[in-house]
């Protein structure tokens, strides 16, 4: 960071490619007439989770149905520094691309009735094609909470082998070490043979040293390798980038060399899961809203991997959801369940420099375009950035579910109260991070990863081509606002450290005039956005706690239907989600295969 460079505070909440057609190891279908009459497995959605599960199951006949298609490997898809340009609220690139569902939540009362865009991948590879490529995991405590919520086998120790199975890790470039950057890692926490590449950027922004030193001044521990479950602190992060050519690594690469049993139907949208007498019989799909609808039979299971926002929509359209709501739309209820939602690139102005650095990337795959705009960030417990006693007192003073929507069903309310108790307890924990502080070359970005607020996703009509109603209910619990205010003030504390003042960092936004608690709250409400880590719309919880799937990801009350995507996450880990989702999908594939191995053994 050059001397005198400005820095602003931005606030967020929670969320080498070859020709993909040629790389796909199975058969690509373009129309319904090419689909076989039946398959052992039908996977709904060709995003991260869907591709992983389909690949692992394709010893048997598998059909993936995906509404989108393949990318054309545009620069803003493949080049790391441009990676966030196609996501609303991040970057300065094209918005509303053909690879996005382009959905927007309803107006949020706590945000001045602003509507927040909620990107979701409409493309083979899903969110891995659109995301910021951060590849990190949460703390051990984050995943161990899943077991505490009634999900045996989903703690960090049991997930770690699956995290590693998905990953193909590359240690830091020797040139980076020669430049004096001490990046530590432990190979015991990384995989070497997976399909998704994880690597450290070969270019380190000079201001990274100042950020590291600022953390040391503030007594924040520097974690050796956060991938091992100790992720509460500051650390170097890996990115899902192929170090051989410094381009995005996506779930599109999650293929084995030849999978003749694997079929992929593109450009078609699943409209309904066909259920008869409590058992899944098939899937209905269509290319367009007014086009004829086709069906395919399923012999073993449907794996629903449509994503956090579309999975609950399909469940409801198929008769799985709140009976009162479904009845109001004339949909016959199959199972009365409820679904819910838990809700940085440099500002370059020197065009000559930009052109020079882009030319360096194109010729040698070196320089700042190999990065995401930063190399280092912090995930911090409450006690690091705030008065934990004050926040704990405010949490204890609440009736645990008083800020939920008034029409929240009793089972969901009970599940939330169990989650609230864990969130309340962890306010005093030193191993559970609540806020992320992203450091890029021009900004400090605080992001909330342990929200107390909860929202909903629901259908508004019987048409699967209508977008669902997305109501994240941001800041509906005032504890989230208090966390953001504390995060804002801590970002200022980082700026004031000697390490940051040696490069004369100044605040340009919102500026020194914003000083009172009320002014900071107004700034938060006006500027808060989403980090796109939506989850929990079909949670893995006991049914009496409002759960939709059991610990083997089977939908309650329906035989032959599982969910494998971020919607099953019962509580968010303090991490960007893709590395966690790869592990979930790998574990899910084993759960599915093992269940049929046990069944066959009984025959």
Structure notes:
The protein has 603 residues and is α/β, with parallel strands linked by helices. It has a single domain, classed as FAD/NAD(P)-binding domain. The chain has 18 helices and 28 strands. Helix 2 packs parallel to helix 18. The termini are far apart. The N terminus is likely disordered.
In brief:
This is Glucose-methanol-choline oxidoreductase N-terminal domain-containing protein. The protein is of the alpha/beta class and 603 residues long. Helix content is 29%, strand content 19%.
What are the SSEs and their pairings?
Elements (H helix, E strand, L loop, with lengths): L5 E4 L2 E2 L6 H4 L3 E3 L8 E7 L3 H10 L4 E5 L8 H4 L24 E2 L12 E2 L8 H4 L3 E2 L4 H9 L7 H11 E4 L3 H5 L17 E4 L7 H11 L15 E4 L1 E2 L1 E2 L4 E2 L13 E5 L2 E8 L2 E8 L7 E11 L6 H7 L2 E2 L1 H6 L6 E2 L14 H14 L11 E5 L1 H4 L2 H10 L12 H16 L9 E5 L3 E6 L7 E3 L10 E3 L6 H19 L1 H4 L4 E4 L7 H11 L1 E2 L30 E3 L14 H25 L1
Parallel strand pairs: 1-23, 1-26, 2-27, 3-15, 4-5, 4-18, 5-15, 9-10, 18-28, 19-20
Antiparallel strand pairs: 6-7, 8-12, 11-21, 13-14, 16-17, 17-18, 21-22, 22-23, 24-25
Notable characteristics:
six-stranded mixed sheet, GMC_OxRdtase, 18 helices, eight-stranded mixed sheet, 603 residues, flavin adenine dinucleotide binding, FAD/NAD(P)-binding domain, alpha/beta, GMC_OxRtase_C, oxidoreductase activity, acting on CH-OH group of donors, disordered N terminus, single chain, Glucose-methanol-choline oxidoreductase N-terminal domain-containing protein
């Amino acid at each position: 960071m050059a001397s005198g460079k400005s820095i602003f505070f931005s606030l967020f909440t929670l969320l080498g490619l070859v020709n993909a057609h040629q790389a796909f190891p199975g058969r690509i279908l373009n129309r319904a007439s090419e689909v076989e009459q039946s398959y052992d497995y039908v996977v709904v959605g060709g995003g991260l989770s869907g591709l992983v599960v389909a690949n692992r199951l394709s010893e048997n006949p598998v059909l993936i149905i995906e509404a989108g298609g393949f990318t054309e490997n545009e620069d803003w898809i493949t080049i790391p520094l441009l990676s966030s340009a196609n996501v609303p609220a991040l970057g300065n690139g094209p918005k509303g691309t053909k690879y996005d569902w382009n959905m927007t939540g309803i107006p949020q009362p706590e945000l001045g009735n602003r509507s927040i865009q909620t990107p979701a991948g409409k493309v083979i590879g899903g969110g891995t094609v659109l995301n910021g490529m951060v590849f990190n995991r949460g703390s051990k405590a984050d995943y161990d909470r899943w077991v505490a919520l009634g999900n045996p086998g989903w703690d960090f120790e049991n997930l770690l082998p699956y995290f590693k199975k998905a990953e193909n890790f590359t240690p830091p470039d020797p040139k980076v070490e020669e430049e004096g950057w001490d990046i530590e890692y432990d190979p015991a926490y990384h995989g070497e043979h997976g399909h998704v590449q994880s690597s450290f950027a070969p270019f380190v922004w000079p201001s990274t040293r100042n950020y590291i030193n600022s953390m040391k001044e503030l007594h924040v521990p520097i974690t050796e390798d956060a991938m091992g479950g100790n992720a509460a602190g500051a650390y170097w992060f890996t990115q899902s980038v192929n170090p051989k050519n410094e381009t995005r690594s996506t779930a599109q690469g999650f293929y084995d060399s030849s999978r003749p049993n694997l079929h992929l139907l593109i450009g078609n949208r699943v409209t309904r899961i066909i259920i008869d007498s409590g058992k899944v019989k098939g899937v209905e799909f269509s290319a367009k809203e007014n086009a004829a609808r086709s069906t395919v039979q399923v012999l073993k299971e449907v794996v629903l991997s449509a994503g956090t926002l579309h999975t609950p929509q399909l469940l409801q359209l198929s008769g799985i959801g709140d009976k009162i709501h479904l009845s109001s739309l004339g949909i016959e209820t199959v199972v009365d369940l409820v679904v819910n939602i838990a809700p940085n690139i440099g500002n370059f102005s020197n065009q000559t420099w930009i052109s020079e650095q882009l030319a360096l990337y194109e010729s040698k795959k070196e320089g700042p375009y190999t990065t995401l705009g930063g190399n280092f960030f912090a995930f911090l417990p409450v006690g690091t950035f705030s008065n934990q006693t004050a926040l704990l007192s405010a949490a204890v003073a609440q009736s645990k579910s008083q800020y939920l929507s008034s029409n929240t069903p009793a089972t969901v309310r009970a599940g939330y109260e169990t989650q609230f108790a864990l969130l309340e307890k962890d306010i005093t924990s030193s191993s559970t991070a609540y806020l992320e502080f992203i450091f890029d070359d021009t900004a400090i970005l605080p992001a909330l990863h342990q929200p107390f607020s909860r929202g909903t996703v629901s259908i508004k009509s019987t048409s699967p081509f209508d977008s669902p109603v997305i109501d994240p209910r941001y800041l509906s619990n005032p504890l989230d606002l208090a966390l953001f205010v504390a995060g804002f003030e801590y970002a200022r504390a980082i700026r004031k450290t000697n390490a940051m003042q040696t490069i004369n960092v100044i605040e340009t936004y919102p500026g020194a005039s914003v000083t009172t608690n009320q002014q900071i709250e107004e700034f938060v409400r006006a500027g808060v956005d989403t980090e796109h880590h939506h989850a929990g719309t079909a949670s893995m919880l006991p049914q009496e706690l409002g759960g939709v799937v059991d610990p083997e990801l089977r939908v309650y009350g329906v035989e032959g239907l599982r969910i494998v995507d971020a919607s099953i996450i019962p509580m968010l880990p303090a991490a960007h989600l893709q590395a966690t989702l790869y592990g979930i999908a790998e574990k899910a594939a084993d759960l599915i295969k093992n269940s049929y191995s046990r069944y066959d053994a009984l025959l």
